[in-house]
UniProtKB/TrEMBL annotation:
InterPro entries: AhpD-like (IPR029032), AhpD_core (IPR004675), CMD-like (IPR003779), Uncharacterised_peroxidase-rel (IPR010195). It holds the Pfam family CMD. Residues 46-127 form the Carboxymuconolactone decarboxylase-like domain. This is Peroxidase-related enzyme. It comes from the Bacteria. Residues 177-196 are annotated as: Disordered. It comes from Deinococcus navajonensis. GO terms for molecular function: peroxidase activity. Keywords: Oxidoreductase, Peroxidase.
């Protein structure tokens, strides 16, 4: 097996009991255990706390549709050049949007993708918050409101953007490698499930 992290990765016998349950659930739902689940299992309690919030923001029904949350994840991960998250969430964006070409373009440069005005506003906001958080002003919310986002949707967008900036840094700092299965997901003939 290829290395999935630059740190030690516990096996089924050394992982926290809650983490082992999550691994089994992922195997049942996805057919594999995401490498990020294995790599972060080294500190089981912290991983489970992260997963609960991440899962709430990304996988559960929220104020934004899954496609928009994954769009934000891919834009942020692409800007941060996070291989794990750009690949895994690129797969989810392809699957949720049903537009593999568009999702692939977003992963490289969202400006080259055929986006709606709302999607473009979300991408521009995600890019600014990721690149220059110190430059954010109240005026940055105006394009989101013009595009039809409610305050609840804007808050959720900010939370998703912030989550991916944090997660990208963990993944990149420790060399997390995406599962090979992600490369085929969201392409003709594939299925989508929970993402991590």
């Amino acid at each position: 097996m290829n290395r999935i992290s630059w740190l030690a990765v516990p096996d089924e016998h050394g992982a926290h009991e809650g983490v082992q349950r999550l691994w089994r659930k992922a195997e049942d739902n996805l057919g594999f255990v995401p490498n990020v689940f294995r790599a972060q299992a080294l500190n089981g309690e912290q991983f489970l706390a992260w997963w609960n919030y991440f899962n709430l923001l990304v996988n559960k029904e929220g104020h934004l549709p899954n496609t928009e949350r994954e769009l934000l994840a891919v834009v942020v991960s692409g800007i941060n050049r996070c291989v794990y998250c750009a690949v895994s969430h690129g797969a989810a964006l392809r699957a949720y949007s049903g537009e593999p070409e568009k999702a692939d373009k977003v992963a490289v440069n969202w400006r080259h993708a055929d986006l709606t005005a709302r999607e473009a506003a979300l991408c521009a906001y995600a890019e600014k918050l990721t690149r220059t958080p110190e430059a954010m002003t109240e005026g940055d919310l105006a394009p989101l409101r013009t595009a039809g986002l409610s305050d609840q949707q804007i808050l959720e967008a900010v939370q998703v953007i912030a989550m991916f900036n944090m997660t990208n840094r963990v993944s990149s700092a420790l060399g997390f490698q995406p599962n090979p299965q992600y490369h085929a997901q969201g392409r003709p003939g594939s299925e989508v499930g929970e993402q991590a």
